[in-house]
């Protein structure tokens, strides 16, 4: 039985482990919590992250990253974005040159504005660089762990590598597409968390479906605008890691970023909201990174800017909404107007 290592035992890492174990692979799940590892091995549960879900027998948990990746043909990295650099440093000397590395983390590094695959490439030795791929899309862990039909996308520079990973993940409840646009797939998955926080703030303020639809639609415009500016294919944002992930994260009860936004809309500060959450809301760090990146390269992102001001500068959410609503008049789609010479 082929061995796959999953680095990160939170809700998404555990769900991936369960999915791949059910696909017939031997899974080594690494987490830094001794208590959590013991629970997974002895009770076959992870109550803090996936209550009511039973782990298959072919999952073994460990705190030892060296033990986890030994003899593994595929290593899937599912740790919070701020931890991925340290994990990559640990992995660099442990992996064979033909090991496949899949990033399942959605975020942007604050200090460098690097996507997660770029952080991995920055720390892993050169022989491994061509083995890196990413997986993204609308895939709440709570649903994947229970076998609820889900569709995602894998991106890699190599079609052969992407199709290999596609084969590993595919099942009758988990469908995987491929895409060569790593930049777009990663940015879609990362930036949608900012819009999800904004959608949660809208819900917390008591606004309705009209407001959320506007945030989703105009938020997608900002994601596309920023993504294209750094090399993404605009079509990618119409797909699973763009529109798909954005819709589910802005609307779902499972979305931790939306839940954080609701708390802020209800009047809590960022620190208060974060203290009430056990899981990491990646959109907080991503908001800062995306705002600073957009400012540096001169890309207009009004919603992301107001999210930053609310989260980090203490702006009242109501004021942020008002400022968005009274901005100067705009065309909806500038490209359409440019193509209408006499309009």
TrEMBL record:
EC identifiers of the protein: 1.1.1.94
Chain residues that bind substrate: 106, 256-257
Molecular-function GO terms, alphabetical: glycerol-3-phosphate dehydrogenase (NAD+) activity; glycerol-3-phosphate dehydrogenase (NADP+) activity; NAD binding
Residues holding NADPH: 11-12, 49, 106, 141, 256, 280, 282
Superkingdom in the source lineage: Bacteria
Enzyme class, spelled out: oxidoreductase
GO biological process, one term: glycerol-3-phosphate catabolic process
Domain Glycerol-3-phosphate dehydrogenase NAD-dependent C-terminal, residue spans: 181-321
Pfam families listed in its UniProt record: NAD_Gly3P_dh_C (PF07479), NAD_Gly3P_dh_N (PF01210)
Binding residue positions for sn-glycerol 3-phosphate: 106, 137, 139, 192, 245, 255-257
Reaction(s) this enzyme catalyzes, per UniProt: sn-glycerol 3-phosphate + NAD(+) = dihydroxyacetone phosphate + NADH + H(+); sn-glycerol 3-phosphate + NADP(+) = dihydroxyacetone phosphate + NADPH + H(+)
GO cellular component: cytosol
Family that this chain belongs to: Belongs to the NAD-dependent glycerol-3-phosphate dehydrogenase family.
Function: Catalyzes the reduction of the glycolytic intermediate dihydroxyacetone phosphate (DHAP) to sn-glycerol 3-phosphate (G3P), the key precursor for phospholipid synthesis.
Annotated PANTHER family: GLYCEROL-3-PHOSPHATE DEHYDROGENASE, GLYCEROL-3-PHOSPHATE DEHYDROGENASE [NAD(+)] 2, CHLOROPLASTIC
Name listed for the protein in its UniProt record: Glycerol-3-phosphate dehydrogenase [NAD(P)+]
Organism: Selenihalanaerobacter shriftii
């Amino acid at each position: 039985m082929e061995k796959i290592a999953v680095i990160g035992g939170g809700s998404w890492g555990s769900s991936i482990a369960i999915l791949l174990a059910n696909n017939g692979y031997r899974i080594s799940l690494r987490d830094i919590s001794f208590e959590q590892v013991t629970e997974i091995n002895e009770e076959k549960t992870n109550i803090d992250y996936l209550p009511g879900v039973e782990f298959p027998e072919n999952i073994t948990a460990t705190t030892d990253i060296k033990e986890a990746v030994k003899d593994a043909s595929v290593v899937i990295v599912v740790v919070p974005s701020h931890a991925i650099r340290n994990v990559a440093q640990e992995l660099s000397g442990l992996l064979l040159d033909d090991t496949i590395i899949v990033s399942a983390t959605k975020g942007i590094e604050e200090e460098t504005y690097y996507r997660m695959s770029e952080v991995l490439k920055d720390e892993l030795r050169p022989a491994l660089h061509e083995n890196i791929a990413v997986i993204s899309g609308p895939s709440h862990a709570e649903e994947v762990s229970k076998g609820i039909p889900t569709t995602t996308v894998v991106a890699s520079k190599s079609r052969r590598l992407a199709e290999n990973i596609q084969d590993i993940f595919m099942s009758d409840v988990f469908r995987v597409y491929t895409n060569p646009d790593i930049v777009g797939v990663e940015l879609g998955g990362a930036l949608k968390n900012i819009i999800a926080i904004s959608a949660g703030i809208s819900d917390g303020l008591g606004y309705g479906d009209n407001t959320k639809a506007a945030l989703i639609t105009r938020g997608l415009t900002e994601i596309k605008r920023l993504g294209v500016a750094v090399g993404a294919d605009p079509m990618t944002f119409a797909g699973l890691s763009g529109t798909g992930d954005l819709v589910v994260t802005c609307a779902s009860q499972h979305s931790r970023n939306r839940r954080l936004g609701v708390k802020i809309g209800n009047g809590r500060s960022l620190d208060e909201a974060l203290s009430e959450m056990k899981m990491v809301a990646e959109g907080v760090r991503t908001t800062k990174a995306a705002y600073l990146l957009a400012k540096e390269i001169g890309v207009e992102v009004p919603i992301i800017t107001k999210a930053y001001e609310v989260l980090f500068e203490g702006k009242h959410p109501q004021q942020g909404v008002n400022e968005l609503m009274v901005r100067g008049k705009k065309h909806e789609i500038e490209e359409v107007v440019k193509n209408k010479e006499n309009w």
